[in-house]
Amino acid sequence: MSDNSPTDAPRGFPITLPTDESSREILIKNLKHWATTTMDTFEGVLFEFQPSSRWRQIGYPLDPSTRTPKIVDTSPGTLPWTPWDYCAKGCTHFPPRSQRARPTVFDEDKTLVITLTEALQTGVGSASQVYKGRVHLTSIDVVVKLYQMSRVGDEKVLYGLLVSAARNGRNWCNVLQSFRTECSAYEHMKDIQGSHIPYVHGFFQITLPHDEPCIAVVMEYIPGPTLREYAAVNPNPSADILDAVGGSLANVTHAVSMKGISVIDCNADNFVITSNLEVVHLDFGWFIPVSKIHRFEKLETLVSILKAAGFDKTAVNQWIVRRLTDPNTTYIAAFDVPMSESARIWKRLGVRVAPVGGIEGERAKTPVPSK
């Protein structure tokens, strides 16, 4: 510890949640110190990740009483029954994905030596600082996320988050220490790592150069634009392209949901499109376990993500209509769409239902894109 660092700094990994005013003030003082002594960027810094420093959070880190929406019939640390349970032994709704090769350098008994080469998402106000890195003496690129609590916000923001966290724990796990929820999510999705989501090579307990305790995750680097970046240069893709991108997004959304994960921060920047138009889902720092009430909400999420990314809204409506009216469609079964709710779903998706034969008030079963 540096000579000018406070002597009453809370130590250990992870930092303990302060539940009283005195310990909260100590943590704030140390976070303020670390915020002023940290480097602006860790580009060029070499880190060693030792096998003995690996960290795991397997169970869901929040108590059931803090979950929104409420979930019943589940105990702390477990995931509830989901409407996708019938896919547990193999999903027939979407084509299987091949798994990317995982280099042996990432075996759990090996020390990882990584130099951070490029800042991807850094700055004050973020739950994690994200860098691209290169494994020492190889040509293998990785992503390294540093969960640096001192950069989540200024002193006032941090104090408010700590007070809130002391009451219900949500801001502690979802914001100040989002590695807890993210690690739990990746543990539950081990068998779709390397296909639908990145490989995670480990969560590690480290100390940053300015002596701030930190959890870092090393994961697979997926080259390619985000969904938003792709839509910026392809706002009006052909029907075939939108079918491929939308279908791949549906595939990964279903695969993640099938593992009992419902991502709260589900935006277009958290999806990368590979060169073969496969969509890979990133970032699981804020999730809740899936429950039955989420079943067809994920279908609506697909449409919202594509529109928010910047794709033409009419084209997106046409895409979802094609998928839902195709006689060979698997979407209705895959997302457990209740047909009794179909009219409401069409409306919420921004799709109107055409009148039949001009008879006022009568509706066709086939939806058409809204204008």
UniProtKB/TrEMBL annotation:
Coiled coil region boundaries: none
Domain Protein kinase: residue ranges: 116-371
InterPro entries in the record: Kinase-like_dom_sf (IPR011009), Prot_kinase_dom (IPR000719)
UniProt-listed PROSITE patterns: PROTEIN_KINASE_DOM
Origin superkingdom: Eukaryota
A GO MF term: ATP binding
Protein name: Protein kinase domain-containing protein
